[in-house]
Amino acid sequence: MKIEHTPRKDIDSLQRLNQLASKNAYDIEDLDWSLNVDRSKLWAPPAMSPLTYLPSFDRLDEAQQLRYNQIFALAICEQFIWFETNFLIDAMESVVRQFNVPDEMVTAVNFLTDEEIKHTRMFWRLLQKSEPEWYAQREFRIFRMTPGQQLVTRAMLSWPKHILVWIWIAIFFEERTTDYCRQYVQFDRQNPDSLDPSFLQVHRFHFRDEARHFQLDQHLLSWVYDRAPRWKCRLAGRMFYRVMRGYTAPRNTALQTLRQLAREFPDLNQSVVPALVRELPLLGQSREYHQMAFSRKAVKNSLALFAEYPELDCLWPLFLVETREANQPGGSAALLAGVAAGSVNSN
After folding, report:
1. For 203-232, what is each residue's pLDDT tens digit?
2. Taking CA 80 as the corner, what is the angle to CA 150 and CA 124, rounded to the nearest 5 degrees?
């Protein structure tokens, strides 16, 4: 029996997404792994890192700020590995097992899971090149989840057909990942030779898949979420609020980053690191930080989708520089035009 569904506007068809997956496919060995990681350079665009928005950050000297930037870049790689391996792959495989979706969706999910496994291998290899002793056993050094986040993750992966918050997490974090990749490319254009080439290369290649993954998430929104009973959607909204409340005011991974920095620069334990720890709650109140991470500049399409669903109205007080009214539907995926096809040169 043919399954009817109304596609969302302004996103590619599943057939087109699968064609792009084949056309833009690459192997991990296509990257130049002979590049050395340069410890004298930035490993991430500075504006991406939360602590740069705190008053006491300027108390770090140049060498300490550079090392913080590098530790933060490692934490981002760890976060991507966790999200893609411990969350996204399991969630997407549940779609194939538990939901009535068309063959083209199954093919798209299979492409995605293969690509996420490839991304994980890329990021582990980059981590091991950067800090061989830290990552010899492929264990996380910086990234941490709160107990509440761990509980939500276990619940939704155990009952994905009933706890649908995984769809919203996938949508938001896929677009946030795309924005990270975009920031690497833009910073390199504006500041040539400032970024380590190994980190830049990996994020460029990562970018080649992520915009398409974000579009696939929107197909899942139509096929799975929009057909669900309202109680499941309301539950997803409440759970997503808890996830985003911690993310818009980050603490755990920021604390681990500071602890690592203090181990390498023990004098910082006297006053600077304690001051930065006290200031961490200010991130939830920083308009500059929210403009970078939670504005239409960063996640325009996700915000427009949030505005379509009343059960997500609880999110708007978390976003300091955005409102529901400013993100009403009407072109929520316009920024994706051309991106999935590779409008940013990844070579």
Report:
1. 999 988 877 888 888 888 888 899 899 999
2. 115
d(CA 134, CA 345) in angstroms, rounded, equals 32
CA nearest to 200, candidates 35, 26, 64, 78:
35
Domain that holds residue 273: 14-23+33-336
Contact yes or no for 183/45 (Cβ under 8 A): yes
CATH of the domain at 113: 1.10.620.20
Domain assignment of residue 191, yes or no: yes
Q: Structural domain tally of the chain?
A: 1
All residues at 6 or more sequence positions from 41 whose CB lies less than 8 Å from its CB, including other chains: 193, 194, 195, 196
The partner residues of 195 in beta bridges, in order of sequence, read 42
**Which ranges in the chain belong to alpha helices (H)?**
14-23, 62-81, 89-98, 103-130, 147-158, 165-190, 197-220, 230-247, 252-264, 272-279, 287-293, 296-306
Confidence (pLDDT) at 331: 42
> Residues 6 or more apart from 303 whose CB is under 8 A from it?
296, 319, 322, 327
What's the whole-number mean pLDDT along residues 63-83?
96
pLDDT at 208: 86
CA distance to 184, 253, 277, per residue, from 66 (Å):
16, 18, 19
Is residue 62 within 8 A of residue 216, CB to CB? The reply is no
pLDDT in tens, 107-148: 988 898 899 999 999 999 999 999 999 999 999 999 877 776
Does 240 map to a domain? Answer: yes
Backbone angles phi, psi at 48, to 5 degrees: -70, -25
Helix (H, G, I), strand (E, B) or coil at 205: helix
The CA dihedral of 236, 175, 170, 27, to the nearest 10 degrees, is: 180
CA atoms within 13 A on the CB side of 279: 17
Nearest-10 crossing angle of helices 252-264, 62-81: 140
